[in-house]
């Protein structure tokens, strides 16, 4: 099968990770893959994937961008053209009457305007929550998948100067308001534990100030960016997700594939796979604290609550499962 992916974002995040891993996985499975994207992203792809560069700084309403994308769609000779996220989907809609390929769009995050997805041949959402937002019969859920994490045990107490007699938990993500790390710090203040917040972002200064004001019983470190997130995560006793909003939490799926205990706010994908007792209301630091205290008193029970979700993740949230499920969508369209 000949597929063309369209990505019109810039920078590096979960969306870019998804497109890169899907494209490489499709290519390894024997399919022809081309990618229309910003040159900065294309430089991260192997040469066996065909590169079609566009200026992703251009607005989705810029006719020059539409023409450039349409030109490359014809160059790719694709059976399936797959737009990733809202901007690419909007541009693909502008082009859809001028080529014969089947069209697919994937919604990756909560958005107020999603009508463009219904105009394509198929819509994909990365969680059931997002699929319900699409409100169109041509939508299916395909969970994001990741490669099985490669890890090595890290002595967190030595590396970060933590108290070895206390449980050590971690939270992972960009230091931005949406991740709710300020609420997490409110929730743990005064609890006898260690917390690592792994990531970098514009909220660092504010969070560091909040950490300095924590009770002396609570030890928290901002690690900054780390390439060994999986190893840090598995070296901890549990993973905390405090997000105010998510489209799909890669942190949750990675923690599940590492067989880690998780406590999360009511966001996808955690709220679709975890035991309901492991989900707390968004922005309710008191509820988060109460549930965490209870779980820390009985870690074995916490781990037992995780078992069904862990089994599901190993079936549906691997890179292999994501690739197979995406190919099934493509095949159904070409067979129609």
UniProtKB/TrEMBL annotation:
Organism per entry: Methylophaga aminisulfidivorans MP
The UniProt record lists the keyword Transferase: yes
Presence of the UniProt keyword Oxidoreductase in the record: no
Protein name from the UniProt record: Glycosyl transferase, group 1
Domain Glycosyl transferase family residues, every copy: 158-309
Keywords carried by this UniProt record: Transferase
GO BP annotation list: carbohydrate derivative metabolic process
Gene3D superfamilies according to UniProt: Glycogen Phosphorylase B
GO terms assigned for molecular function: glycosyltransferase activity
Highest taxon of the lineage: Bacteria
Cited PANTHER family: GLYCOSYLTRANSFERASE (PTHR12526)
All copies of domain Glycosyltransferase subfamily 4-like N-terminal, residue ranges: 13-146
